[in-house]
What we know:
Helix Hairpins, 3 domains, 10 helices
Amino acid sequence: MMPPGTARRVGGFLDGVPMPMMAVDHRARVIAANPAVVRLLGADLMDRPFVTVLRHPAIVEAVDWVLEPDRHRAPTLDPGLPPPVDGGVTLRAQFPADGRDILAEVTVSPLPSVFGRGAMIALHDRSVAEEAEQMRRDFVANVSHELKTPLTAMTGFIETLRGPAREDARARDRFLDIMEREAARMNRLIQDLLSLSRVQAEERQRPSTRVDLAGLLRSVVATMSPRAEAAGVDIHVAGLEDAVALPGDADQLTQVFQNLIENALKYGGSGGYLGLRLERIAHEPMLRGPAWAVTVEDRGEGIEEQHLPRLTERFYRVDTHRSRAQGGTGLGLAIVKHIINRHRGRLRIDSRRGAGSRFTVILPERSSRG
């Protein structure tokens, strides 16, 4: 039996702990739960059998063992986790909570003796850290692959030029042209990686200056017009007549719209049309206020629906071979997404195979906190 007032005292103790924690008595019924664990597992925890709170066999076994070590088999220890201390145990477990599956390090330890017989359960959510580590591994693998392909090609051509093609002028010129293209591709990749790194470093810093969005778009169109003419694409603009002032980083916004127009020319240029439209939204619900929408639209082949949610992922390509042939690095839309996030804006992508694509950037008209 527990001394009177134990549940209240244990609850007060746990309330001061930032990570999710709960305590059970000698019957394995919940006697205390701090706010962090309530947010994670729900409000109705008190006086419930622990087995109904976390239905995970390994965690339940660990609780049973801590409460009655003589009657239950000791849990299997994970060599990658700290060894048990003071009759406790730490294990990894994945279970549904807060509407998602989380991966947690769960530590089960005896209650301090002054509280009587019972156990404390601490949950350290490792999901975010694991996801970040997986993203890091994927990123390194992707960069390595993107650099390895042109480096391998260039190494092969250098060996050929030093050997069989040493005196072959035509082969030498052809190989040097290819090597120049591959070197330019690696340079573009490195520049995009540096740009992405800078954008991510500044993502939490809201731009403090104001820009004329209409004037900026006119400048971008003037810059991209020669490329559009070379591709046989007509650029049609609307809404750029009057100045539109809003908070923004001019260089970064220029990069966003140059990227979107360049993509429209590369992948939607077959339609011979590129539309750029600027219009005001009196109230944008997601931004909780007035906003301006810039839409870049083409009439090309379009994109199949299943690809749309992943277009802004780093190195994601709908058509890998075509993208590389066009000089794409697979980072352009990822950079666009992070710049728009920094401006507290939204990117909307609409496309259907055979019906062209429409990319809409929505930017708040006024500065907002956060």
